[in-house]
Amino acid sequence: MTGTPIGLSGPHCCAAMHDQVTFVCEDGHPDPEDCPDALVGFAPKFQEYGIWIHDGGSSWIAIAYCPWCGTQLPDSARDRWFDTLDRLGLDRDDDALPRTGIRRRTMADPGPRRRLTVHVDSR
Ligand SMILES: [Zn+2]
Ligand SMILES: [Zn+2]
């Protein structure tokens, strides 16, 4: 899908999606990944929709279709974003660049596993 980039405030495919991605929690969760009421987010920079993974991190699983109305969502521009940074010779970890704080996981790449720390009493 090409055309005008979608902003955070839309236009999104349906009212349910709009309500989700513009959701602002009033219970003291400034970041949607910390809020159990936030289900789906949108990253304008990447033109990417994703389902938040509420595991204490800041990951989501990118989605290709709207869960409510079934509309096909735009192709993620994430790869293009990083390709552009590489072409310009910019460091993708440069703090001067805008950050999304979002890491993407796929089912094939579930991300780092949490390690259980076991304390052994060695006395
Ligand atoms: Zn929709
Ligand atoms: Zn909340």
Quick overview:
With 123 residues, the chain is an alpha+beta fold. The chain has helices at 15-21, 78-87, and strands spanning 40-43, 48-52, 59-63, 103-105.
Keyword list:
123 residues, alpha+beta, 4-stranded mixed beta sheet, 4 strands, globular, binds zinc ion
Determine the structural class based on helices, strands and strand pairing: alpha+beta
On the 0 to 100 scale, the average pLDDT is 82
Strand content: 5-15%
Question: Could you tell me which ligands this complex binds, including any ions or cofactors?
Answer: zinc ion
Biggest sheet strand line-up: 1-2-3-4
Number of domains: 1
**Largest beta sheet, briefly?**
4 strands, mixed
Overall helicity: 10-25%
Bulk shape: globular
- Unreliable stretches (pLDDT < 50, length at least 5) are none
User: What gap, in angstroms, lies between the N and C termini?
Assistant: 64 Å
